[in-house]
Design a protein that fits this description.
alpha+beta, 29% helix, 18-stranded antiparallel beta sheet, 36% strand
Length: 614
């Protein structure tokens, strides 16, 4: 199905979307539940027997599913007062009308697949405000109370959270689709319910039941993605080896083992993965997997009594951690850190999938603006650092606040002669590193085959433009190339202004070359061939299309590129052979150098004629 036909059909039909935009690059696998026959919201009330009402509605979910319908819905965090052993709603102190859970019963469901749309900045939507409700001072005060409880031994780990208020103007369906491109997950949800809409981009599975098999994937441990491939790998290794993050993860994994043990056949609970690190667009996440076989047929009340809320968003032990967090945080989390679920019968067996509602928005319309909440948080242990935890929380806002990436392909420019490609292995290794950073599929076998087709049987000297798209497809073009007999001299000066070192595209070669194209236009106006890029500290990076090399006495140096700049494969080959050394260089180093050379894998070395800026 095309995106256009899906959008048209969905706008006519509506319904609950449970989507996987991660497993099949470039596409969304969509479970679409529609044709609603009933919508139910269960609110806290002192005026009625609320516990019986919850049990009755949970039984209805089981009955509807067994009768061939599709119950889907949301469980709110405050429902923990009902399910956590030793707590009760009657003494919870919740306000009258606090949401506990809601669901919709659908008559129909279909699974479809559609291409992810390109919605870089949809004109129909506008993120108006993102207000962090706790500043650093407030967070520090709450964090200190949290750590005091940990030091006293009241809990081993506490997941401290705070609210972020947001407002959005325009078409929420398009806004949801545009955010999906920035946060590709297996558990995205779009859920219109009465006068509200839920947009969820959760990467965390709460549980999945298929027949009598249940699996969970507790997620605990976060670190930012790096800009360069080297930084990115270092950040991944830092997370994998972090004593604090591993301690958090193993505590929550043990909690899940114990919770599953209450509903599982004896001897079937097992941890199948521990400390698995997964890459999202903006962060690395540590995940473990715990699975078991149920000792009784699936029933909502039994499962939630054992598991809800997820230990990964509370702490251990669950009851005391829940009580402490309610007191320290001082607000209702609502849908945040609750759960969204879909359920059905598949081949005569129950199939239920439930996500933990992180990276989730619940919005209601106020005139022409949708207003609501988004939550962030992190796990606190006695090893935690307050500033690092606050920054981790703020990092989880990046996929909302960062601009959408433009549609682009990963690019390599190669030189071929007599069907042999200069530095081919280094080019393909760099392309693979960039593909890993952006989540593009990469097959070395397919890349080799595509290149062979492009240059096979050619005896000419060629420039090869080789590209990889988001679906993992390679394509290329070849052009005749003439290399000068004598080493060329390039006129260059400094760029007019420093680069933005936070621009991810400065570190990777792609077709998104807006910045470089703008610089090239400036070069033409100044009558020079190339310009030297530098950061806000005056650190030299590369030129617009070449890498820099300077000689001081008998040693050659090249900029480190930690603050921006593309690591060329020609440069990498020289580093591997110890022909040059990588170091931080500044304008003064260039001006006092004994010799300056430029280079890339297409042209090799070229001389430089450095002229002052006009």
């Amino acid at each position: 199905m095309t995106w256009e036909s899906f959008e048209e059909d969905y706008r006519k039909t509506g319904g609950f979307l449970f989507e996987d935009s991660l497993s099949l690059p470039g596409y969304t696998i969509c479970d679409w539940y529609f044709d609603s026959i009933e919508e139910v919201q269960v609110l806290y009330s002192k005026q009625e027997p609320i516990s019986e009402k919850i049990k009755t509605n949970l039984s209805k979910l089981d009955e509807f599913r067994e009768n061939g319908y599709f119950p889907c819905g949301a469980l709110f965090f405050e429902l923990g007062y009902f399910f956590i052993e030793g707590l009760n709603l009657e003494s919870s102190g919740l306000k009258e009308g606090t949401p506990l859970f809601q669901y919709s019963i659908y008559k129909q469901k279909k699974r479809i697949q559609y291409p992810n749309p390109t919605l870089n900045n949809p004109k129909e939507t506008n993120l108006q405000t993102v207000n962090v409700e706790w500043n650093r001072e407030t967070y520090t005060q709450k964090w200190e109370k949290t750590r005091d409880a940990l030091v006293l031994g009241e809990s081993y780990e506490l997941n401290l959270c705070f609210p972020v208020s947001i407002s959005i103007e325009g078409d929420l369906f398009l806004y949801y689709q545009s955010l999906k491109s920035k946060q590709k997950t297996k558990y995205s949800v779009y859920y219109p319910f009465q006068d509200s809409k839920i947009l969820s981009f959760s990467p965390e599975l709460f549980f999945e039941v298929n027949g009598d098999f249940i699996q969970t994937e507790p997620m605990k441990g976060t670190n930012l993605r790096g800009n360069t491939s080297k930084q990115d790998e270092e950040n991944k290794i830092t997370l994998q080896s972090s004593t604090k993050e591993r301690a958090e993860n193993v505590m929550i994994t043990d909690l899940y083992r114990n919770d599953l043990g209450r509903i599982a056949k004896q001897g079937t609970v097992q941890v199948t993965d521990l400390f698995l690190v997964k890459g999202l667009e903006t962060v690395w996440q540590m995940v473990s997997k715990v699975e078991a076989k149920l000792k009784s047929p699936f029933a909502w009340f039994t499962i939630l009594q054992a598991l809800f809320p997820s230990g990964s968003v509370v702490g251990a032990p669950k009851r005391r951690s829940f009580e402490l967090l309610r007191n320290i945080e001082g607000f209702d989390r609502g849908l945040y850190t609750g759960s969204l679920f879909v359920s059905e019968m598949l081949d005569g067996k129950p199939w239920i999938r439930s996500s933990v509602t992180i990276r989730t928005m619940e919005l209601k319309k106020n005139h022409q603006v949708w207003k609501g909440n988004y939550g962030v948080g992190s796990g606190i242990t006695v090893l935690s650092d307050v500033d690092a935890e606050y920054e981790e929380c703020l990092s989880k806002l990046k996929f909302i606040t960062n601009p959408n990436l433009p549609e682009f392909e990963i690019l390599e420019t190669l030189r071929s002669f007599h069907s042999r490609i200069f530095l081919k292995n280094l080019h393909l290794e760099r392309m693979e590193r960039t593909a890993n950073r952006f989540g593009y599929p990469f097959s070395r076998e397919k890349a080799e085959a595509a290149l062979k087709t492009l240059v096979n049987s050619s005896t000419e000297l060629l420039r090869v433009r080789f590209l990889l798209n988001a679906k993992g497809e390679f394509r290329g073009e070849t052009f005749p190339f003439t290399k000068p007999k004598h080493r060329a001299t390039v006129t260059l000066s400094f760029a007019n202004q420093p680069v933005n070192s936070d621009d991810l595209f400065l570190y990777h070669k792609t077709t998104n070359r807006t910045y470089y194209n703008e610089q090239q236009e400036e070069n033409k106006k100044k009558g020079i061939e190339d310009c030297i890029l530098f950061d806000t500290n005056g650190e030299i990076l590369e030129t617009n299309i070449r890498n820099l090399f300077i000689r001081k006495k008998n040693e050659w140096f090249t900029p480190s590129l930690e603050r921006g700049g593309l690591p060329g494969v020609f440069r990498e080959a020289l580093l591997k052979r110890n022909r040059v050394k990588e170091t931080k260089l500044y304008k003064s180093d260039l001006e006092t150098a004994d010799e300056i050379l430029l280079g890339n894998s297409l042209r090799g070395f070229e001389r430089a004629n450095l002229i002052p800026n006009p």
